Amino acid sequence: MTEVLVFETNQLNLLPITYTRTTFEILCGGRRQLERIVDAFGENVTFIVRDELFEIFNWRWKTNVNELPDSSSYLFINGSFLLTESELNGLKNSLDLNQALIGSHGVVAFKVDKSKAEEIFKEKTINKTFLNKLFKKEYRWKTRVIRYLWDIINHLNELIVKDLESSKKKFKRREADKGGFPVYIGENVTIEKCVFFDCSKGPVVIEDGVEIQSFSRISGPTWIKAGSIILSALVRGGNVIGEVCKVGGEIEESIIEGYSNKAHRSYLGHSYVGEWVNIGALTVTSDLKNTYGTIKMHINGKKVDTGRIKLGAFIADYAKTSILTAIFSGRKIGVASHVYGVVYEDVPSFTIWAKTLGLIPVELRLESAINTQRRMFRRRNVTQKRVHIKLLERIYKETEKERKEHGVLKEKLRF
């Protein structure tokens, strides 16, 4: 039997959201790439995870991590490529030993024997230069990949529809108020009166235990994951709302990871929001420049043109926005940061940012971040574990240089 090993690339381009997760844990479409791979290959999957994420990854998924299983052949899959379950099934028998599948932006997959697999594990290096030394045969394949943060938004609509192809048997079908595609509904779903579904451009998927309150309008393609509450919201097309979220106001072509709140009137457009984030009332994200030009982002110290006219913000786990916060297009907000006023620059992790209120950015104390995490967990009946605290401790230390470069002071914020 061929064992499957999943590795990641491009994680530095995807900071700050990859401080807390691997690239194959990013929610894009109805499922994460990790979930697609497990569904396609079953239990014989091992994930190659960065040392700093090993403990939290193990706690989340309880699967095979960082150990080479015994086998005569190994199929390595790049978890940064967004392959559907049917595409993954096609990989099972399409590659011979010492053959690689090269995409337009890197190595998609390759198959090797045990000796070469051991060499790769020893070197802990999986990139195109290294792989060119191993393979004489290759063929090219154009497919989806997360190279930069905006790629998550680029592929969102398509993957919502494609993920449904392998999941629709789990749901009951209901005709939409405005047709084209159905509404797919899980178990124990509450839909109050005066809820309107517009499926003219794509399906709406509602997982188990979701509550949708009256006067919500939900347009497809949209995927609402289990246990979330939609609070009389305007949900335009192209959204994925993660597990146990509260969402109100207006949202368009955006992803909200699990356990995050956007309960009040606000606008989130063409954006990504991590886990355990709180979006304050009347927070707005800009997703269009006044010039209608393409939006540029700062990636690894360089300014990169995203090629997108519409692009919002990327907000990492545990971040908080205050009431009346306005975030410029293409801005990043780091892990556990608190932002106030107008955010026109990228915000480092563990930072209290209120420049437009006339205040110098100051560091959010690690102790405060840990206490805030514990309080937020309690509100969702989740117990804070040592593994959660260690994650915050590691990121706090890892991002000290970033805060220093942005002039963040180790002082108390005084309004």
Task: Provide the fold topology.
Elements: E1 2-7, H1 33-41, E2 45-47, H2 54-61, E3 64-65, E4 73-78, H3 85-91, E5 99-103, E6 106-113, H4 114-123, H5 128-132, E7 137-141, H6 149-154, H7 156-165, E8 172-174, E9 183-185, E10 190-191, E11 196-198, E12 204-206, E13 211-212, E14 217-219, E15 222-224, E16 229-235, E17 239-241, E18 246-252, E19 255-256, E20 261-262, E21 267-269, E22 272-273, E23 278-279, E24 284-285, E25 296-299, E26 302-305, E27 314-315, E28 320-321, E29 326-327, E30 332-333, E31 338-339, E32 342-343, E33 351-353, E34 362-363, H8 366-379, H9 386-398, H10 400-405
Helix pairs in contact: 1-3
Question: Can you characterise this structure?
Answer:
Helix 1 packs across helix 3 (85-91). The chain folds into two domains: 2-147, Spore Coat Polysaccharide Biosynthesis Protein SpsA, Chain A, CATH 3.90.550; 152-333, UDP N-Acetylglucosamine Acyltransferase, domain 1, CATH 2.160.10. Strand 33 and strand 34 form a beta hairpin. By secondary structure, the protein is of the alpha/beta class. 21% of the residues lie in helices and 27% in strands. A nine-stranded mixed beta sheet has the order 8-9-12-15-17-19-22-27-30. The model has no long low-confidence stretch (mean pLDDT 93).
